[in-house]
Amino acid sequence: MTIRNLHHAIDPKSLAVIGASSRQGSLGRVVIENVLAMGFGGNIWPVNPKYSEVAGLICFARVADIPGVPDLAVIVTPPQTIPGLIRDLGERGTRAAVVITAGLSDEKGLRQAMLDAAKPHLFRIIGPNTVGLIVPAAKLNASFVHLQPQAGDIALLSQSGAIATSLIDWAADNNIGFSQIVSLGDMADVDAADCLDLLAGDPKTRAIVMYLEAVPNPRKFLSAARAAARLKPVVAIKSGRHAEAAKAAATHTGALSGADRVVDAALRRAGVLRIESLGELFNATETIGRFAPLKRTRAAIVTNGGGAGVLAVDRLVDFGCELAELSAETIRTLDQVLPANWSRANPVDIIGDASPERYRAATEIVAQDPATDILIVMNCPTGLASPLEAARAVASLSQSGTIAGKPVLTCWLGSRTARDGRQALQEAKLASYDTPADVALAASYLANWSRAQEALLRVPPSRAGDTAIHDSKTVMDIIRRVASEGRRMLNEPEAKTVIAAYGIATPTTLVAASPEETERAAAELLGNSAKVVVKLLSKAVSHKSDVGGVVLDIATAAAAREAAETIVARLKTHDPNAVLEGFAVQPMIERRRAWELILGTSRDPVFGPIILFGSGGVSVEVVADTAVALPPLDDVLADDLIERTRIGRLLAGFRDQPPAHRTAVLSALCALSQMIVDFPAIVSMDINPLLADEEGAIALDARIEIDPHAAAVPGPNRDLAIRPYPAGWEREVVLGARAYRIRPIRPADAALYPAFFARTAPDDIRLRFLAPRKSFPHQMLVRLTQIDYEREMAFIALERESGELAGIARLYADPDHERAEYGLLVRTDLQGQGLGWALLAHLRDYAAADGLQCMEGIMLSENSRMQHMCREFGFSIRQHPSDPRLQVASLDLEPGSADGDTRSR
């Protein structure tokens, strides 16, 4: 269940307060007083056998005595009473409760007994151990908070009651109102994902703020967060930032991918802005709530005080923001309106005596520069000009908080003198901040949120491309053989064979069982290579360099034998009981100008498989220049991962250092991502170092750990927090003389839509979208093709010969994942040939396999062709309950199988 029956909680018409009390200082008294103080207009029924009257209302001894059916119950009775109360309420017809009571522990079985009592009635429980629920628009305060929050358009979700009450107190002092406040408590039933789904469709909620301590169901949470963040700003604080990082014995990746970094990556991928402190929460929400996401986030500054501008630049750089480089044309234009001693750079210092006219001219010119994405306008008070008049000049350019279409952030420094100027700016809907640090932080909010929104719109395919090498049989054979031997670690030759099977280049590796065989192997390789490398092979050693198990720069076969003998001696010194399995002999790869990189994967205990990228080599953990991301990746997401490291910028080249082969590095990351998707048995992996230069990328070493018990489990990996492209749902169909390929939609398919719509009659488009449409903006096409496979699906049919788009079938599941609405459109020139039937059948099979119970389609009553096909297909058709122009087609589904892509919930 997700949002089923939750409407009873947020918009109840009647309320039972079970445990209501008249005793001074009791929880039951505070709750009933809060309910009355906010002015709830429906029936209020106190329940407590100790009283005949509470707060001037008749009090009932039992649930059975209540004269009506409460939409919502608020429960503040002892823990042992809760399961029975939930059962009684459910039998009575109530479908939601806020359980404020704490102490329903798993040890005593009370929590599970409560859930068992709720299950037969689809009864929803907020809590237990919660401060309560507040919906100001419904005049509902079912809580024990100390203030009555004012109504507004920000929703607050908090896993901590103390944080919720603190934020309510702070908001009251800053004139901030709420659409809903939900203290989630122990989340026995209703969790953050349920509330995100509910708030995503709430017209009274403009933005959502969250305080999180745990994410119990990451795939459900990320799916809900992605859905909500597409529609409105979502801002989150996640506590526990400095918890000890998870350690993995076998890989560097496990040691470097601390839990908090994974939370960052997950929220970023969901389009959620993460901030660090409670004081930032509402400021961040207000900032990003004003503007649309930006493609780029370069900041330009106009100021009358050079020092203030430099302070802002320092903080912008601290926050990872990019400065705009003004064009030569902009500089020339500014020269015409500014004094000769202006800064002639960004920040644009227009000098302390700047008049209102100078402010207006400079602001307008800088805003129009193509490199300016975010405009910061600052003012320092002087005796030479009026801050108020400067503010009015800037305000005169404002168009709903933007100038020349660019977001504007203002900072009028000072207190008494600046106050009127700030008010003038705010009246013009311009965002205003008190200090250079504040305005720089606001710019970072907008930049980070824009990047998160860009990542949100990426839904990678599970295949890196049609030309990518993916020899999954070879990999599966190795994994099964290693598992059959009872091993968890692949040896180096096995690991390199695995990554080579997915297109990552590796040097030739010969395995030798003894120093003598090492000599012969070296002789063979030295025919084609100037030097060779000898490496230890032993299951007892995780990192060969730690025990001197790698010898480089070997020029002769005899030296290779001596190197092997030296390695044997070192191993005995390190661990006399360690078993030597042999030696790996490889050509010495010498790329003097190559960068050493690390690629890896490990398992986060919450979000499952993660990918790490950064500076590699033996000092990887000391340098610690890495970033993490959630799979699956595509080229765009992989490129973003690279850019979040220092070495990523070095790979672009500098001075006489040519750029590294970016495509080769991206391909390696996407290959790693694909292996994670395809093989659930892979627990962790290091590819270290991966050498990258202008010639390409080659992996010199690799370590892979598997779970032997999962060796036979087929992909896609069900532990992924983000559901990958369902490759198992591709198929070919032949209809008469035409052949089509039906497959799930991909982000790149947006390019196919314009030609498709050009060949689809306007009336067919009207029937599909229930209204005429003359155009489809690019952003709409992006939204149609970049979907979350966890809750929606679109299949496209492509003509096999031309590759042109022939038809689209779409499915969007409700948050409960029981019912889904479908849509269908076939290109006009291809109608009547059976393609619509094939697409609809494919959609039905997928919906059944995905666990949905019913498909529904809404159509215009005049759409006789669709009605005819639906009836033949087995749909029942009825009149739409609220619109006589529409009809609803419904099809009950039989459970199916998902062809290698079963649902994980």
TrEMBL record:
Residue ranges of the TM segments: none
Lineage: Bacteria, Pseudomonadati, Pseudomonadota, Alphaproteobacteria, Hyphomicrobiales
Keyword field contains ATP-binding: yes
Keywords for this protein: ATP-binding, Ligase, Nucleotide-binding, Transferase, Tricarboxylic acid cycle
GO molecular function list: acetate-CoA ligase (ADP-forming) activity; acyltransferase activity, transferring groups other than amino-acyl groups; ATP binding
Protein's name according to its UniProt entry: Acetyltransferase
One Pfam family in the UniProt entry: Acetyltransf_1
Domain N-acetyltransferase: 740-894
InterPro entries: Acyl-CoA_Synth/Transferase, Acyl_CoA_acyltransferase, ATP_grasp_subdomain_1, CoA-bd, GNAT_dom, Ligase_CoA_dom, NAD(P)-bd_dom_sf, Succ_CoA_lig_flav_dom
GO biological process: tricarboxylic acid cycle
